[in-house]
């Protein structure tokens, strides 16, 4: 009798724990403003617009009461996961009152942010002035890190890959 009850309870528990993505990360905002559109025009024209951007963590910084994360931007799939097999467009800064611990938000991990665009910031890199868009974070999601072996990073290439249909896991090899 207990085994029958557990058999019905197990699938319920499994589905309850399967999806912990915040709603702002799971679905794109109505405007769905892409990083490349912001680069093409001035950031000030898009100030206050909601975005859902993701990428690879470059570094975590503390600035006053705010935490700043510098992100190498990658396009995200429909669920918000950054797709590393697509070309990057540049960098952006995620700014939040939430404390991002450098021990948890390690360099190279994938993260997705939902928030509003703030005025851009400038950075001097190799004698070149770079303008980085700043996102005031509303929601965020740190993606789990899964490795198949020590030489590979994230294993997901997904159905939205450029290499869809080209062999096992979209890799181009059979």
Describe the fold and architecture.
This protein has three helices and five strands, in the order H-H-H-E-E-E-E-E. The protein has 174 residues and is of the alpha+beta class. The protein has a single domain, classed as Nucleic acid-binding proteins (OB fold (Dihydrolipoamide Acetyltransferase, E2P), Beta Barrel), CATH 2.40.50.
Short recap of the structure:
With 174 residues, the protein is an alpha+beta fold. It has three helices and five strands; from the N terminus they run H-H-H-E-E-E-E-E.
Secondary-structure map with pairings?
Elements: H1 2-16, H2 23-26, H3 35-40, E1 50-63, E2 66-74, E3 90-96, E4 110-125, E5 128-142
Parallel strand pairs: 3-5
Antiparallel strand pairs: 1-2, 1-4, 2-3, 4-5
- What percent strand? 35-45%
Number of helices: 3
Taken in chain order, the helices and strands follow as HHHEEEEE
CATH class, anyone? Mainly Beta
How many angstroms separate the termini?
48 Å
Q: Do you know the CATH architecture?
A: Beta Barrel
CATH topology description:
OB fold (Dihydrolipoamide Acetyltransferase, E2P)
Radius of gyration: 19 Å
Major sheet: arrangement of strands: 1-2-3-5-4
How many β-strands, per DSSP?
Answer: 5
The major sheet is characterized as:
5 strands, mixed, barrel
Question: Overall mean pLDDT score?
Answer: 75
Give the CATH superfamily: Nucleic acid-binding proteins
* SS-based class: alpha+beta
Q: Which spans of ≥5 residues are poorly predicted at pLDDT below 50? A: 12-18, 154-164
Number of domain modules: 1
Helix share bin: 10-25%
Shape: globular
